[in-house]
Amino acid sequence: MIDIQRLRDDPEGVAEAAERKRSPVDARAVLGFDTSWREALGEAQRLESVRNSNSAEIARIKKEGGDASGIMQEMKRVSDAIKGQKERCDELLRQRDELMAHIPNAAHSSVPRGNGAQDNVTVSEWGEAPAFDFKPKDHIELGTALGIIDFPRGAKITGAGFPVLKGAGALLERALISFFLDTHTRKHGYTEVFPPFLVNRESLFGVGQLPKFEEQMYYIDEDALYCIPTAEVPITNLHRDEVIPVAELPIKYCAYSACFRREAGSYGKDTKGYLRVHQFNKVELVKFVEPENSYVEHETLRADAEAILQALNLKYRVLLLCDGDLSFSAAKCYDLEAWACAEGKYLEVSSCSNFEDFQARRANIRYRPKGGDGKPRFVHTLNGSGLATARIIVAILENYQTAKGTVVVPEALRPYMGGMEEITAG
User: Which of 20, 261, 302, 361 is catalytic?
Assistant: First the structure.
């Protein structure tokens, strides 16, 4: 949620920033409800002052033995008016905040202007693509021939987009998750959390997933619960409606979770094989930080995610997203993309985002700064994938394949795979 004062001070700027994110808003309509709410609130406060004066007058008259019936009737009329005015305040505030919930976060000043993915900026590249003296196979052919990915049986059990991993494929998945978690907890200082995979509506609203992205969610109507699209949702909401002691900041969490996304509207967009699935695994990194440190923490978050790709010796690049490609809630975002040789392109494996106080306002997550007036302020929240496994498996299979159709296991993963050095058929 943006700060209402920002909208009051610069409605045109807020509207322009929303337009740049392709989420147009009627800032004047929001301000109309805000103005009416403030006027109604002022009238309610005026009536309460009248009621207080009447109460004092009634007490005086009764003390002197006089007749206070007339002023008591007036008191009832004022009380009824106050009740009606407060109900009007509540309704105006509800209407204002309902519109406010659809206003995206504004892009940070360092974010480049652009209309979409084609305008993102390459910040850096790392590693070398493998050089083969044979035609490389894609992950579908490799996974099928090795017996480690079963697309048909996954479709039979559930439907398209729910593949089954078997044997060394399942072991590789588990190894990646353990390697990611161990790296972030032992080397990068994160605290591991194992969260619920189902959340309530308030949790999704708090991170900005609702109301905008409801059509992308799997929903359980009987229990009014949603399957999480990422562990960002439950982890960020750990501190919803809390005031965090400043001495505890920064807080750094990492969490494994399964992730569920309907991917509505993504038909034809990187949907082949394991590139875009409805259920996948991911290790998520989440930070709660003081505002003055958030952009330094953003860079270290990105470095923590990059360290995984470097340890796996996967060629990758870092993109700084333009404002036209930024998510609804993010103020700034880096995408990490790993190279997959048979696909012949980079695949997004992580997004590292700074939300500033946008999520904290929605989820009411605050801290009390040292010194000053001691008034609680909103924290800044950040998160990033560290990493998602599905496309990493694609990159490993395609980049580490051999001429004989096997796949070499990256050295960093061998301790997690019982010393296995090569994935073979059978």
Answer: 261
Closest CA to 360 of 265, 294, 279, 277: 294
Active site (annotated) includes residue 201: no
Alpha-carbon Rg for the chain, nearest whole angstrom, is: 27
Asked about 192 being catalytic, the answer comes back as: no
220 — phi, psi (to 5°)?
-105, 100
Domains detected in the chain: 4-100 (1.10.287), 117-423 (3.30.930.10)
Model's pTM, two decimal places?
A: 0.91
Tens-digit pLDDT profile for residues 192-237: 999 999 999 999 999 999 998 899 999 999 999 999 999 999 999 9
Residues 44-59: tens digit of each pLDDT: 999 989 888 888 888 8
> Do strands 164-165 and 242-245 pair parallel, antiparallel, or not at all (unpaired)?
unpaired
The answer to whether the CB of 284 falls within 8 A of the CB of 383 is yes
Which residue would you say has higher pLDDT here, 168 or 1?
168
Out of 20, 276, 302, 366, pick the active-site residue: 276
- Residue 262 among the catalytic residues: no
Q: State how far Cα 425 lies from the chain centre.
A: 39
The yes-or-no answer on residue 77 being catalytic is no
- Tens-place pLDDT, residues 269-287: 555 677 889 999 999 999 9
| Residue of 20, 96, 362, 391 marked catalytic | 391
C-beta separation of 346 from 337 below 8 A: yes
Among the options 19, 348, 368, 414, which is catalytic? Answer: 348
Contact 193, 253 (CB under 8 A): yes
